[in-house]
Write a structure and sequence with these properties.
The chain has one domain. Helices cover 30% and strands 33% of the residues. The protein has 3 helices and 5 strands; from the N terminus they run βααββββα. A 5-stranded mixed sheet has the order 1-5-4-3-2.
């Protein structure tokens, strides 16, 4: 389950994604873990995954809040991240 509010919804929308896009990438069975930054108060994780609608490969940073996954940010995957995703399983 995901933790969405006006702030993180607006943030991912500013990057051109819907909440459905981001959730699809995070739950993508072929997703790839990626390095993420941590803060003093929380551990963050990143994944590279594909959206359902247009198949875009995106980079998503998340953190855990209780038993929910909170999306911190999402952006288009960079070229090297896209290659890493596409090579997965080969």
């Amino acid at each position: 389950m995901f933790d969405w509010d006006e702030e993180n919804r607006a943030h991912v929308k500013d990057h051109g994604f819907s909440t459905d896009d981001v959730e699809a990438a995070v739950t993508d069975l072929r997703r790839v873990s990626a390095p993420a930054y941590n803060t003093d108060t929380e551990t963050r994780k990143a994944v590279i995954g594909k959206t359902d609608d247009d198949g875009a490969i995106i980079f998503v940073v998340t953190t855990r809040r209780g038993n929910k996954t909170r999306v911190v940010t999402a952006r288009d995957a960079e070229r090297h991240e896209q290659r890493r995703y596409r090579r997965r399983g080969k």
